[in-house]
Design a protein that fits this description.
Largest sheet: 8 strands, mixed
Number of strands: 14
Mean pLDDT: 94
Order of helices and strands: HHEHHHEHEHEEHEHEEEHHHEEHEEEH
Structural class: alpha/beta
Strand order of the largest sheet: 2-9-8-7-6-3-4-5
Helix content: 40-55%
Shape: globular
Radius of gyration: 22 Å
CATH superfamily of the largest domain: Type I PLP-dependent aspartate aminotransferase-like (Major domain)
CATH topology of the largest domain: Aspartate Aminotransferase, domain 2
CATH architecture of the largest domain: 3-Layer(aba) Sandwich
Number of domains: 2
Strand content: 5-15%
Distance between the termini: 38 Å
């Protein structure tokens, strides 16, 4: 069915630049055909969602003096006790400066904060540096804003400092550095690769950015730590934000969607004050403040210990599911296949030597015949003219997929790979 659309001349420049998300149809297909096993949808584990915990928090809330006020409008920055919870959380994690609740804003998921920062900072033609590959939903946001998105290579330890230095040096020679507004980094268990930026690299990356950029004035860094709470292996790594000792240049954003419940849609950001004031104005004109009720529930979950217990359970669950997927890759994929072994999060990034994994490839068609889906890696790379990107990558997710479906889905995908290779 052809959906009627407005003539382009009636649309704003932003609306004309916006496109349908590449991933949307991948998410629809399992809903239309329940026989399909989706290793593509980056959703959290369905069975682990905290139904009882949220019900208990709601019951306690409505039995208290806060019950009625939780159903009222809140404030633009968000519920103060929850912002105080976040300050204590950051301080307990060793961030070097004392944080004020006034530095923090609560949002409708971390995605809203990405939109707000983009709306405040990005004009058409501005440059945004991202890891390559990166979170493709945000590149769509940047495209609609008119940004020029420039990729910097990464490996299993995150963005590569030498590649960043080379890119910034090139921008400096062409005067493009004056148009560089944002550097976007997913520093923990990155979507799509599962890579984590090591502490040594964080220090080096911040040093390189300081050398080339006027941080805190013309250029800001977004540290997207949405998956940090889901670390199931290895030692904790300090935030890049901890290097921003004067709170001038790094926007740290996170979310309770991955670690507790995406249905509650509560995200948060710790921002430099000179940027926060404009983000608050933008947010105030959009929604007057995110869901007050949901923020109350999250605060109750934290204060009662339910949140920390839920996170511990998730870590154990995702460790088990990640190991199961990695075992299946080793058993089902051909010799020479490579993966980035995640230490947290929900994704496995696989490389198949000599195999095109793209949407129009034989492999994708064979996988679809066998009713299994993955995210073609080509969706995750920046679209940069005259720069060729790898076509042999795929993103696999173990988040929402039940264990038996991980085994069966990887069996089907392995058969598809063998069919193409034969």
């Amino acid at each position: 069915m052809n959906t009627p659309r407005l003539p382009k001349h009636l649309l704003s420049p932003k609306a004309r630049r916006a496109t349908d998300p590449l991933i949307a149809w991948l998410l629809r297909m399992p809903l239309e055909d329940p026989q399909i096993i989706s290793l593509a949808a980056g959703f959290v584990d369905q069975q682990s969602l905290p139904v009882e915990e949220v019900a208990e928090c709601a019951k306690e809330l409505f039995s208290s003096n806060e019950g009625k006020s939780s159903l009222q409008y809140g404030t633009t920055p968000g519920y103060l006790p929850l912002r105080e919870d976040l300050c204590r959380m950051f301080e307990s994690q060793g961030v070097s400066k004392r944080i004020s609740p006034d530095d923090i804003v609560l949002t409708g998921g971390s995605q809203q904060l990405l939109h707000l920062v983009t709306d405040v900072l990005i004009n058409e033609g501005d440059i945004v540096l991202v890891e390559d590959p990166t979170y493709y939903v945000y590149t769509g946001t940047l495209q609609a804003a008119g940004a020029k998105v420039v990729g910097v290579a990464l490996d299993e330890n995150g963005i590569i400092p030498d590649a960043l230095d080379e890119k910034l040096r090139s921008l400096s020679k062409s005067a493009g550095i004056k148009k560089l507004k944002l550097v976007y980094l997913m520093t923990y268990f990155q979507n799509p690769t599962g890579a984590t930026l090591t502490w040594e690299r964080k220090q080096k990356v911040y040093e390189i950015l300081t050398k080339y950029c006027d941080l805190g004035r013309t250029t800001f860094v977004i540290e997207d730590a949405a998956y940090r709470e889901l670390q199931f292996e290895g030692d904790a790594i300090q935030y890049l934000k901890s290097l921003d000792t004067e709170n001038r240049s790094v926007v740290l954003l996170g979310s309770f969607s991955k670690s507790f419940s995406p249905g509650l849609r509560v995200g948060f950001g710790w921002l430099p004050p000179q940027l926060l004031v404009h983000v608050m104005r933008q947010k105030g004109s959009e929604d007057f403040g995110s869901s007050h009720f949901c923020q109350h529930l999250i605060h109750r979950a934290i204060a009662s210990g339910r949140y920390s217990r839920h996170v511990r359970m998730l870590k154990a669950l995702y460790r088990q599911k990640a190991n199961l997927m990695l075992k299946s890759v080793a058993e089902r994929f051909p010799n020479g296949a490579e993966v980035i072994k995640p230490r947290g999060g929900m994704f496995v990034w696989a490389s198949l030597p000599g195999v095109n994994t793209g949407f129009k490839s034989s492999l994708f068609k064979e996988a679809l015949k066998r009713k299994v889906l993955y995210v073609p890696g080509e969706f995750c790379y920046c679209r940069e003219p005259r720069i060729r990107k790898p076509v042999n990558k795929m993103r696999l997710t173990f988040g929402m997929v039940p264990e038996q479906n991980i085994i069966e889905g990887m069996r089907r995908l392995g058969e598809a790979v063998q069919k193409v290779l034969s």
